[in-house]
Amino acid sequence: MHTLFLDMSIEKVIKAQKQIPIAKKTVLNILYTEKIVTDALLEVLKTHDLSIEQYNVLRILRGQNNKPINMSLIQERMLAKKSNTTRLVDKLLLKQLVERAICADNRRKMDITITPQGLDLLNHIDPIIENKEATLAKNLTEIELITLNNLLEKYRDSNHG
Fold this sequence. Notes:
Layout: H1 10-14, H2 22-45, H3 52-62, E1 69-70, H4 71-77, H5 85-94, E2 98-102, E3 110-114, H6 116-136, H7 142-159
Antiparallel strand pairs: 1-3, 2-3
């Protein structure tokens, strides 16, 4: 389990011997923070034999409110756009958390839906994940969290479009 220290600068984390240029420092901070967040979420998900990507697929399917969705739409909604959606769905099928059927409108496509077991698992995991997210954010005020989100979106937009 990771603990964030307020005085734990990225320079201390990587034991830098000289000053790091601000653009590089920003990238390093984002990467290091992503690792801490990923590790914290995996701590919860691994106890339920799920990866972050599988959890994301289940949440996308739940958002469909029992309406089937095809693989390409799942792929569009994934946070990790390069995920192998077919492999993820195959693993969820083996765990009986999703179902797959041939699309009635287009027989070349497969419709994917979440099973009752998948919904039950999400209902169990959601409060644990929300608690973990709150713990990760505990050192920041609501205003700081809003500012951080705005800055991350601005940073992403300037580099992604």
